[in-house]
Amino acid sequence: MQARALLLALCLTSASVIPEALAQQVGSNEPILMTADDLSFDEDLGTATARGNVEIVQGGRILNADSVTYNQRDDIVTASGNVVLLEPTGEILFAEFAELTADMREGFLRGFRMLLNDDSRLAAVSAQRRGGVETELSRAVYSPCRNCLSFEEEPLWQIKARRVLHDADVQEVIYRDATLEVLGVPVAYTPFLFHPDPTVERKSGILTPTFGASSLLGSSIQLPYFWVIADDRDLTFDPILSPDQFPVVTGEYRQRFADGENRTRLSFTQDDAQVGKDRWRGHIDSETRFSLDELWRWGADIKLVSDDTYLGRYFKNSDTLTNRLYLEGFGSRSHAVAEGLYFQGLRDSNDQAETPVVLPNLEYSYISPPGHYGGMTTLDANLRALAREEGASSQRISLTPGWQISNTDSFGSITSFRASVQGDLYNVSDVDTSRGREDAVVGRIFPQATLSWRYPWIRRSGPNGQLFEPLLALIVAPNGGNPDKIPDEDSQSIAFDETNLFAPNRFSGTDRVEGGQRMVYGFRTGVFGELGGSSTLTVGQSFRFRESNPYPLGTGLEDQLSDIVASLQIKPNKFTSLLYKTRFDHDSLRARRTEISAAIGPPALNLDLNYVFFDRTSGFADREEVTAALKSRLTDQWSAQIQTQRDLTSEGGTLSYGGSLVYECDCMNFEIIYRSTFTTDRDIPSDESLTLRVTFKSLGQIESSVF
User: Fold this and answer.
1) Which domain holds residue 159?
2) Residue 535 resides in a domain
3) Looking at the whole model, is its pTM more than 0.85?
4) Which of 44, 195, 182 is nearest to 116 (CA)?
5) 29, pLDDT greater than 60
6) Nearest-angstrom CA–CA distance, 54 and 68
């Protein structure tokens, strides 16, 4: 006999006593569906038994078993054989035997196992259900480990406890007399332990502390407390405590809005590290972002510190802090920004009185849709006001309209033309000129035209494609264009390489323009494999028709014939990548600047190498430095790395070195990190540290530093 789909809504014969009786207990608003291969009823005992693939569905709760018996007199449902109870919250309960109330919210289970939402597992000799939300386990084991080890018998780590309570309402797992075992070996005991269950995204409470000891700060502990203020905001209070000094009081506040967000970290402490006597030190690091509509957004970055070395001593070192308040808009073919900027320099050589405040800085850029014959109109506009306590101040209005067009002829060569006129008006004060310091109003009109041509030659040779492309450009502009009454605020950084070889203005900003007439020439060539491998080489040089030039010595552009710039990139396969950039002296062909970046080898053994060299005549201080890291993915879980940074100049040496060993799996991460630095900065001496960090899924992270 088979009984299928016995519904509460149907008035069936006495054989429907199970769903009807259950319905009376749980209420008519919760219909019950039961299916089974066989159904029998004992009127004398008042019991009904369903056997074979039994499934009972009530609300969001589903019970499966080999056999289910309902005792109408005691209002008890008994299930045996492969019992599975699926909860509305997503947890799945397994048992050998279960005795439940009619609504399946309370009862007793033997041979119990529980699969939580994140695949973590609980197992126990027996379990007691209460109210459909609490499950109390006796002699229980918890572990989130699934695939950490190659064998299934013993998880990497687990918690054994005399009693465990899982409360779905409070969303906590609570342990009594708990022992943490790693590879079956007990390593820690606590009479009480709790952690959020996998359904929790955010919950107030004490987070795992971080223990530290270093040659810089001595021993310390960072004890974080996470406070969920509301659904849209929280606070992490994580002071750094040390027996050797005043605590570093610090915390981070976060808040989400319907159209934006804010993150703010504050800290302060008192020490005598910088001036030899106790003083208050601290910092603020805040970021705010808001969207006004689909096109406009505004934001604020506030980054301030009490003194130059505070961040490097207690947090992350920085050379310059940039404070910015801005309004920004993005059109389909335009971009506009209004901003104010305040800088705080943290180098020993920085003088805050000479550091400018920029307010306002307004920028607008526009490029039109292609018109007749593909020509496009462009416009770049800027208004900037810059002030200092000591030194030059200025206000600038700059407009640069332009027009450009590109054409590909029947031979495949590509010719492009661009014409522009830059108009600038400056109001300056206390500007250092050849006649001393002056105040002035000065203007500039600077027209410029660029005609460029390139002719890509492409051929196929077996599985490879080859490219050879000659490059030419003629740039015409009036000579000069840089009166000494115009201060240079945004064009001081000049890095001449293949990326700006053909740029109309190789200065980085607007205050300086590159006048005169010049020819730029070079070529690009490459080989490209059908499997993704490639090698490309770009070489170029420029020639100025007049001897006068606006560039300082050492930039590679100070002579009529510029230095030769080149870039070579080789990627024969996905395991090898080499980038070589250089600048050769145009007379001696001696390298004046060299940069090498290489990544060689598969994940099993990979070398990352970065080398940089500037000679004294390259516009920078004499510098030669190499950074190398050897990485190895030993297995799917284990990886290791060693790295070093060295100054290769005669006065240099090792700047830092270190290494790490990392184990990662689905339930635990383990890291050993060693680092030694030899650089110093006033009250920040060289430092050496060894950090041990263990992250247990669900429980948190334990970090300890030595030295």
Assistant:
1) 3-196
2) no
3) no
4) 195
5) no
6) 7
